[in-house]
Amino acid sequence: MLERIHLTIVQQVEKQGSLTAAAKALHLSQSALSHSIRKLEQRLGIEIWRREGRHLELTQSGAYLLSIAHRVLPQLALAEERLQQFAQGERGALRIGMECHPCYQWLLKVIAPYLNAWPDVDVDVKQKFQFGGIGALLGYEIDLLVTPDPLYKPNLQFDPVFAYEQVLVVAEDHSLAKVSFATPKDLIEETLISYPVDIGRLDIYNQFLLPAGITPRRHKTIETTDIMLQMVASGRGVAALPRWLIEEYQDRLPITPIRLGEKGIAKQIFLGSRITDQKVDYMEAFIALARQSPR
């Protein structure tokens, strides 16, 4: 019978690189680990690894088991965590992944009232999933994904919770500060500051500059919103960010939002979740609260 330990061993051997290292990580003797896998191979009539010199290579059966391990083990870990929370009188946990740099400030406005309304739910925000959260959601590493760019997959649902406009932000004394909207040509001689994200996922490129066949003079990346806007305010570049975010900073920094193109760029923040979790009450409550969050 296929057991959890078999999946764990296959996963750890792949992760650690050898049977010896995997046995150490699992606090098993190498002979016990090898014996467990050998019994499984004999019972099922398969081979999981094939030795190539000093290395182990997964067979087709082993590769399939590894894919099952990546899917099943996180679900079992989540189930154990939830059951322990129930045993301790807690309702559960809500793990939120961020796939949107500026959305963190928006999320704070939702989490504060949510924690008050649901004191028995443990909330964790995982920013390491920025621009790679779909895999984390499908792999049960997170429960909700905050993203402006939903990628529709089977078993996932994306709820729009917050509409906003993506704008160009410039210093108050910038030559573009008084125009009603910016054109792609206006950015030819500019330094464009953005988060460290692939150009293909930046709206200012894929919806504004590239369709016009234009790139800025220089593209600079900065990880934090505060530093980025300090750079813009000091005249060292321009950036594209949500209008609501710029309006929050305007009382602290001499910056101005400018519409991107005559019609502007309309965006939405979505909350992605697994369809199987749609009826979890505290998740439904979070999505409902997100829709009512301050703009």
TrEMBL record:
The residues the entry assigns to the signal sequence are none
Q: Which Pfam families match?
A: HTH_1, LysR_substrate
Q: Which GO terms describe its cellular component?
A: cytoplasm
What InterPro entries would the database entry show?
LysR_HTH_N (IPR000847), LysR_subst-bd (IPR005119), MetR_PBP2 (IPR037406), WH-like_DNA-bd_sf (IPR036388), WH_DNA-bd_sf (IPR036390)
Query: Which residues belong to any copy of the HTH lysR-type domain?
Result: 1-59
**Keywords in UniProt for this one?**
Activator, Amino-acid biosynthesis, Cytoplasm, DNA-binding, Methionine biosynthesis, Repressor, Transcription, Transcription regulation
- Principal place of residence: cytoplasm
Q: Where in the cell is it found?
A: Cytoplasm
Q: Could you list the residue ranges forming a coiled coil in this record?
A: none
Q: Name one GO biological process term.
A: methionine biosynthetic process
Any one GO molecular function term: DNA-binding transcription factor activity
Query: What is stated as this protein's family in its record?
Result: Belongs to the LysR transcriptional regulatory family.
Its name, as the record gives it, is HTH-type transcriptional regulator MetR
Q: Which organism is it from?
A: Ignatzschineria cameli
Taxonomy of the source species: Bacteria, Pseudomonadati, Pseudomonadota, Gammaproteobacteria, Cardiobacteriales
